[in-house]
């Protein structure tokens, strides 16, 4: 408990100081709320529009929770295939890297043309955003297995499948979870971008409405909620890592 508190309080204090300085600057320099509202104004408008904001948040959360597992699973499957089939990795890995040079916002119009305005193009976009960090991290973890232990298992007569399941796959879990945590933060962003391409509900749609109405305070509310959703999803993955990878050495507290 104490170690957890020691990890939490420094960023918590930094956030509180940041918000205090922000509010003080807005009040001291009488900055127009249209340009930069203070944290107090953002909190008030979020309370006033709580019901509407919650409905949009629930829509984004639903989209994220559908797309994130699909993207993570796709990334893991791609990593396993490329690891088990080296010739396939040599052929496809450069294309995998090149695919990330295309911004997701640029793919959105094409996905609408190909798949329409329904749920499918949004899920495809989130999958494309999420799968790459998982695939690269998992491939890196699988490739960095303990060579001494691998040689020992080969001398003991272990099959390739036994080496994979007993050594390579368990040893890749820390790297895999690093990729999944990155993917978790990307998933919420991907859901918001997906809502920009065509939706009638969600934080992305809400931001577009508020931008058109020049409600900077409501745009900030959406940004805060997006950050909080990303942090919660990241924390859940981190807790799952601590539970599943118990053998991983931890730094002294």
UniProtKB/TrEMBL annotation:
<feature type="transmembrane region" description="Helical">
    <location>
        <begin position="92"/>
        <end position="117"/>
    </location>
</feature>
<dbReference type="Pfam" id="PF00528">
    <property type="entry name" value="BPD_transp_1"/>
</dbReference>
<feature type="transmembrane region" description="Helical">
    <location>
        <begin position="123"/>
        <end position="143"/>
    </location>
</feature>
<protein>
    <submittedName>
        <fullName>ABC-type nitrate/sulfonate/bicarbonate transport system, permease component</fullName>
    </submittedName>
</protein>
<feature type="transmembrane region" description="Helical">
    <location>
        <begin position="12"/>
        <end position="31"/>
    </location>
</feature>
<keyword id="KW-1133">Transmembrane helix</keyword>
<keyword id="KW-1003">Cell membrane</keyword>
<feature type="transmembrane region" description="Helical">
    <location>
        <begin position="63"/>
        <end position="85"/>
    </location>
</feature>
<keyword id="KW-0812">Transmembrane</keyword>
<keyword id="KW-0813">Transport</keyword>
<dbReference type="InterPro" id="IPR035906">
    <property type="entry name" value="MetI-like_sf"/>
</dbReference>
<dbReference type="GO" id="GO:0005886">
    <property type="term" value="C:plasma membrane"/>
</dbReference>
<dbReference type="GO" id="GO:0055085">
    <property type="term" value="P:transmembrane transport"/>
</dbReference>
<feature type="domain" description="ABC transmembrane type-1">
    <location>
        <begin position="57"/>
        <end position="237"/>
    </location>
</feature>
<dbReference type="InterPro" id="IPR000515">
    <property type="entry name" value="MetI-like"/>
</dbReference>
<comment type="similarity">
    <text>Belongs to the binding-protein-dependent transport system permease family.</text>
</comment>
<feature type="transmembrane region" description="Helical">
    <location>
        <begin position="175"/>
        <end position="199"/>
    </location>
</feature>
<feature type="transmembrane region" description="Helical">
    <location>
        <begin position="219"/>
        <end position="240"/>
    </location>
</feature>
<keyword id="KW-0472">Membrane</keyword>
């Amino acid at each position: 408990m104490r170690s957890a508190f020691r990890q939490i309080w420094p960023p918590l204090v930094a956030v509180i100081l940041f918000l205090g300085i922000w509010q003080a600057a807005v009040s001291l320099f009488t900055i127009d709320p249209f340009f930069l509202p203070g944290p107090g104004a953002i909190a008030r408008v979020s309370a006033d529009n709580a019901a509407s904001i919650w409905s949009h948040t629930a829509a984004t959360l639903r989209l994220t929770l559908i797309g994130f597992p699909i993207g993570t699973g796709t990334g893991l499957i791609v990593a396993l295939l490329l690891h088990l089939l080296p010739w396939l990795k040599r052929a496809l890995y450069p294309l995998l890297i090149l695919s990330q040079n295309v911004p997701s916002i640029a793919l959105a119009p094409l996905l609408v043309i190909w798949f329409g305005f329904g749920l499918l193009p949004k899920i495809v976009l989130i999958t494309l955003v999420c799968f790459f960090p998982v695939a690269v991290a998992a491939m890196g973890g699988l490739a960095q297995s303990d060579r001494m232990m691998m040689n020992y298992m080969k001398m003991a007569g272990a099959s390739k499948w036994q080496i994979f399941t007993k050594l390579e796959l368990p040893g890749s879990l820390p790297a895999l979870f690093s990729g999944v945590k990155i993917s978790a933060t990307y998933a919420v962003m991907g859901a918001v971008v997906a809502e920009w391409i065509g939706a009638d509900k969600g934080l992305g749609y809400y931001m577009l409405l508020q931008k058109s109405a020049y409600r900077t305070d409501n745009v900030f509310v959406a940004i805060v909620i997006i950050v909080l959703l990303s942090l919660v999803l990241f924390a859940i993955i981190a807790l799952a890592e601590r539970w599943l990878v118990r053998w991983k050495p931890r730094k002294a507290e």
